[in-house]
Predict the 3D structure of the following.
Amino acid sequence: MKYVTIICLFFQVLSLTAFGQAYKYHTVAPEENVYRIAQKYGISEEAIYTLNPDARNGVNVGSKLVIPIQDKTTSTSQTTISLPQAVSFIDHKVQKQENLYRLSKQYNISEEDIKRYNKQLYSKELQLGETIKIPVFAIKEAAPLRPVAANQPEPARTTSPARQESSTREHIILPKETKYGIARKYGMTVKELESLNPTVEVLQPGIMLKVGTNVLNEPVILTDNDFQFYEVQPQETMFGLTRRFQIDQDSLMALNPALKDGLKYGMVLKVPTKDSSGRELEDVEMLVAETSEVKSMDLSENLKDFSTKNLVLMLPYNLSKIRNDSVSNSVKVLQDDRVMRISLDFHNGVIMAIERAKELGISTNIKVFDTQQQASRVISIIQSNNFDNVDAVIGPLLQATSEEAASRLLREKIPVISPISNRELKAIPNLYQARPSDEMLRDAMIEYLRKNAQGKNVVIVADAASTGTKTRLMNALPNARTVNPGANNVAESTLAAALVKGRENWVILESESMGLLSSATSALNRLARNNNITLFTTNKNNSFENDVVSNDHLGRLKFHFPSEYKEFDETVKDDFIEAYKAKYEVIPNKYTVRGYDLTLDILLRLASMGSLEKSVEANVLTEYVENKFLYRPNPNGGFYNDAVYIMHYNDDLTLSVAK
């Protein structure tokens, strides 16, 4: 194998010479520095730094440098190659997003012709704003056409290799470069890089590789130990990667701009090697593994601390909008102000939970504040009141006010629980996101499909706006068929062609277009008469709730979707539901139930484990009327609820949790 590598290197060097550029090793002698070495070879210091980045910090006696050697004479082997000579030149200033491939197409010349008259391009990339010389060659007179006799076959047409060559370019390996770094720079997978260079088994500085033409403007060498390159594996998701590498999604995308087009199998990503606390990720993974066993518990049977709990409830009641002297005004405000209605419903659930906790022996002091949907009001409340003995703050409802409250109470280490925001919150150490984000719901649905789709005929129907989700689904379900619908509809014949009779057909529908959802569900409902069809989505958005989408169709299609809550079963007796109906003569809505479930969970966690953070460390999963809670630590601080339901419609339009 050693000799194969040497032979490969020999032929690579010959290839470099044929292209007008050669490289050699230089062993640093005593009293030599980069300036003297550059003078010796008649090149710039920057040319040495480009191939030897570490040389910027100085060179040591005996170390080896890769040196580009400019051709001054033509070798014997080259004299047989007659290259066309330019008759004039065009000065071209490099614009944004231009590369050699685009310039070669623009000026109808080869990339090699451009390099031949711009020697610096053998060792570095095009620079934005750089002016290069574009050669202009003499136009050869076309050969006269010869008539072809009747019935005489045309001369065989040879396929020009130019098209194949134009899709690749050359890269000279620098010291410390890896296949991962090179593949990342040129927008390739490692497998693609290896297939283009089958003879190069070990990377050596100075060897030339064939690479793609989609060049990223970034280095291919990691200059510190805080980051590493990682190749995306089959079925991995963005959510899974953020947890694996203890990094939030925005930071991962900032490190890897290509992720804006979706996560793809084989992508090479730049990822951290340490978490926010400076721990090596291997140690973090080991720690997570040790505590990964989830414990489903009824905390009411494990109560230990019966001291009075002190809660603060911050909600946007917007009471300033209501005039005490006008009942009609109050009714109108309630009708028009959805946030006020949610706050009052949630408040009723909180009070019911406190009453239930009292029955279990847990007393509660609660202070209630109106945040008025304003971060400034939150600041004023915290500054004007004593929070020293507060065990937890429930609310505010909205993202900005929740984050403001957590930031203001961070020094006191008071937990702030955001009850209903589905947006990904800032990483604040004392902030708990009690509702799973939309991204968590999507990831849970994709994982459910991945685990349960074996043996099914999976069909993905996704519009152009859902391309990112479609890519993730295809990564998780590589054998799935795809249907590309129109902007607002999909033909029944198109769907029928993707189905398989005699097998379970799992159709995943991704869109927010009411027209597309209506046409797709109607067509699938008709096709279900002769086919076994189950419908899924990773995002049950508001368009599914529109009247144009038939609930009867969704019921017949056993529609599956992810959800942060389950609707309580009215056929099963529940103490909370019965008590609420007796008190208010109505069935509680989801916000009232959430207020009850969330508040009772907080009180029981405090009474059984002493603090919310200790309950997180214990990996406790709790479940109540409609909601369940499994808090996990965020990579950069704070906690999120990782408990998600996969729900499905029944024929009678009731809902059940999927098995």
